[in-house]
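Journal club prep, shared notes

We agreed each person brings one worked example of a sequence with its structure written out as tokens. Mine is Pimeloyl-ACP methyl ester carboxylesterase. I'm keeping it raw so we can talk through how to read the token line rather than staring at a rendered picture. Sequence first:
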Amino acid sequence: MTSAFVSDTALNRFHRAYHAALSHLPDPDAEHDVATRYGTVRVYRFGHGPGRPLVLLPGNGATTALWLPNIPVWSQHRTVLAVEPLGDAGPSTQDRPIRTADDQAAWLADTLDGLEPGPAHLVGVSYGAWLAANLAVHDPDRLASLTLIEPAQVVSRFPVTFLPVALGASRAAPEWLRRRALRWIIGGGSLDTPTGHVSTAVAAGHRTRLPPPGLLSDDQLRGLTTPTLLLIGAESRTHDALRTAERARALLPDVRVEVVPGVGHSLSGQRADLVNARVLDFTASCQE
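Then the structure, token by token:
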């Protein structure tokens, strides 16, 4: 089975929130629907900057709306390709089950093949960071660099306190509990924002049929020779920030690690100024 919305009502609610959120972005320079072995992947292109493009992978249920604070800045300096991940909510269309980490790497590799020749700078948040790191494990030659922002299940596991809250954010929970759980996960703040409206619509009505992300092993992390930037919120509830930073420094061969004080899992939005600058500086330092 493939991922889908549970009803037309849920789908329509999502569409309204999604298009309202994307209206806050600059008009994309192009929209690509890339055929892969597992379905068709929607990618938005912004800007025409020099060098290799930034390829953006959002967190689960966040869609391109996650990047509202980032794309307007990055697209002034580089070409930006915002991917709507296959199997998640959004305009990408899954037509074949995705069962393994190999399958996840395959559809993303097919997507890159359909967009640009040569390696790209992958930038992922949360589950999107796992997708990027998973591709780096399977096919490192496709990456010029790897930016992991608040990664999920890449360097460290979810803490035991996270799992019951994640259940509270699921479709089966009542609306009030779902919203409370989502606020806890992102580290507080309002869900009454364009991005928040998208996330709540996805949590309320989308049935995701994807394999859970498996934690990368010590050997897999040691084998990630791709230049890597790791940005962690010090107050994150999805991992222990200091232990995550310590393991990354111990195992990743070529990594810059920064633990950002006073912010949690919504680092890319709450500290967009810092994240925007760090990503541009890091990718500029990598060989083009």
